[in-house]
Amino acid sequence: MPDIKHFDPDTALERVEELFWQHGAATTSIQAVATATGLNRSSLYATFGGKRELYLAALRRYRRLRAEPALRLLAEDERGLPAIEEFFTQLVGVRCTGAYAGWGCMIVNAHTGTDRQDPDVQAVLEEHHRQLRDSMHAALETARRRGQLADATDTATTADVLALLAYGVNLRSRAGADATTLRGTVTAALDALRPQG
To answer: Which PROSITE patterns does the annotation name (predicted)?
Structure first.
């Protein structure tokens, strides 16, 4: 007779995601995961596999439920620069206030973690970067059509710059940078894109 799970795997994975997000994979032990989820190791291994598989599942869950919706909204928004401004305003807000303040972004944290050499982790990071860059590019193309950009603006290169700015906001917020400073940097970067005069 098959073993019946007496817990919700997605609820358990959400707790695992938050643990890895806040503390990183390298410093989070399986015992810490067991304690946070209230599950024994055998249940964790039977459901998710080892620590590597748990981390990958948590990283993919973070990307799917936290990163992708915001990037999809940005790409589909027809406002142009105001959409990019709102994206960064929300990003700074989430990184500097509320339950996850100071945690940074799990995806960005993974770029600096020891597991970044894992091909499966790299694949998640590369796909996220592509979506981030493409979403910025779509919003910039909308801004160009609306006459919101300086004539010389190269939207492809600028999308790369804004993607790096998003990474920077995540890293600096994790290091304790305040919201006012981060918003000022974002404002300066976006102001430089507008038509002058």
So the answer is: HTH_TETR_2
